[in-house]
């Protein structure tokens, strides 16, 4: 995991090194397919920690990932907790992401999560955001992210999924602020 935790920045591009040496470390004859097939897969657990950085903008997140990681497509974990994020534009470009921590931000509407819907996340945290004041927000997430296995550090049960589906059929998921 590469950590930029607690840097006092507002935009991701402030973290991008001007002369990143990441490209210089790549082998001349690097074959990504052989890399994937090897027993040692250094990228299989790659993560980026951007917690508590005062971030308000993620538009250049893919540039940061590309300049920081040897094999950017192996990034599976991103920690953005305790920033000042209100939207998630830019994250949709991180197609291999599986774990996304967003708790403790300023995301007011659960529908802002639609930006990352196509990422096929396994784990997501949103507690500590204003969006949790929306009635039935958790059920809305379960319906829109059916592959989620963990939400706010808790396992998602079949019963919860069933409740979400029932509530949807009954028209009870309105997402009004409580």
UniProtKB/TrEMBL annotation:
Residues 73-152 form the NXF1/2/3/5-like leucine-rich repeat domain. Keywords: Cytoplasm, Leucine-rich repeat, Repeat, Ribonucleoprotein. It comes from the Eukaryota. It is found in: Cytoplasm. InterPro entries: Leu-rich_rpt (IPR001611), LRR_dom_sf (IPR032675), NXF1/2/3/5-like_LRR (IPR057125). Gene3D superfamilies: Ribonuclease Inhibitor. GO terms for cellular component: cytoplasm; ribonucleoprotein complex. PANTHER family: LEUCINE-RICH REPEAT-CONTAINING PROTEIN 51. This is Leucine-rich repeat-containing protein 51.
